[in-house]
Design brief:
elongated; transmembrane helix; DUF1648 domain-containing protein; mainly alpha; 3 helices; membrane
């Protein structure tokens, strides 16, 4: 096998390895936020979605509210990575989708937890 062929065969492995590192960093960030902000959230049930009026639309138990984003990020990323391994022709698109899911969920998780803390301070008897 020529050096060029070996290099081409290792490129998808390198891309997947980099994506796995991005996933690990993203999940560590989301977990860190759940622990850090979770210490500030004392409510047993926390808002999971906000209505157009800015009020909570529905609630979930605290544990689910804090860790839901972690689970969704892990599940969606795993699904997309399995698809990438199954269909190498779509590797680039699936890796972009995976990294987009990770980055978006990192941002959404921080935004959500900060908003829950703000809500909690406005409605102390929850």
């Amino acid at each position: 096998m020529s050096a060029a062929t070996r290099q081409m065969n290792s490129a998808p492995s390198d891309v997947i390895a980099a994506t796995l590192i991005a996933l690990a960093v993203g999940l560590a960030f989301i977990a860190g936020c759940a622990v850090y902000y979770g210490r500030q959230i004392t409510s047993r049930r926390i808002p999971m979605q906000w209505g157009t009026d800015g009020q909570p639309a529905w609630f979930a138990p605290r544990l689910i509210g804090l860790w839901f984003s972690f689970g969704v990020t892990a599940a969606l990323s795993a699904f997309l990575l399995v698809l990438a391994l199954h269909d190498p022709q779509k590797l680039t698109a699936l890796i972009v989708a995976t990294v987009s899911v990770i980055g978006t969920n990192m941002w959404v998780h921080v935004y959500h937890l900060k908003r829950v803390i703000r809500w909690q301070s406005e409605v102390p008897a929850n």
